[in-house]
């Protein structure tokens, strides 16, 4: 954790008030704790809310925009602080107390800056926009390590463009820069599917795309297009239909064999009765063998694993904890690719990362709490 005297308010104000970076108004978040201002996003003299001036520097910033069918987005911005020492914990508890006692001072400052951001995006896109329902919370959560989480929530009307039944998301954020601690998640309604995303996302979820910093979006980035699923059976439906057809064919074969067996049942009845005890014993042995084979089959070969699954298996084979450099060496990955895969797993809470000296350590959740 770096200097605890650097305020989270600076990060809050700059990250969110510079989100609308259309054309020359490029919003930038620079090195951690030292956000960079550019263009018309926020004037250099903008003052941060006094309540945050002695607060802590966030370890992780997650910006999420859940876009609805009419283009309005429900936004959340999470500023996560790892509570790993007394000074950081005390600093966050001070922020938490301030939020409880006077949340309106936080939301009013935030709404003032964010309204300028929305107005800038409105001018650049030509869509009428509005900011509403600004709230703030400060909580402590285990992810699995303990974090202090400051969360702003708000609604941004017409954040995305609608083109018939398509949603075109991202023109309100053109030119945004995310530092290495930040990520941006854009999602769309249930029943929609992605048609395109630029640049290529670092991760895709069930109805969402994620970009992780550091990333410097171009003047026409980020962009995502989503539309209602249709125009034929979805992939999952086709897969289900294939399963039904296979089952039907297998059932037909079984019926044929069953009828053939019935034709010879009278002739073989006595022999079947005599061998019944031995058959039962053989069946038990076969079941045990089949169970062992099934357990073996449940472990797919390494070449069929995703990158994330490979890392989890490596952790399981090494007592639940390895150095990040060991992962890169094991799979002959670049540092950038290793960081991306580890970041995917961390966002899914499948792993936790921490430092020992100069080394980054990756651990399964149950191991990181030891």
Automatic annotation (TrEMBL):
Residues 65-192 form the DUF7345 domain. Residues 195-223, 260-308 are annotated as: Disordered. Residues 260-274 have a biased composition (Low complexity). It comes from Halosimplex carlsbadense 2-9-1. Residues 304-365 form the DUF7343 domain. Pfam families: DUF7343, DUF7345. InterPro entries: DUF7343, DUF7345. This is HTH iclR-type domain-containing protein. Residues 291-300 have a biased composition (Basic and acidic residues). The keyword Transmembrane helix applies. The chain crosses the membrane at residues 237-256. The keyword Transmembrane applies. Keywords: Membrane, Transmembrane, Transmembrane helix.
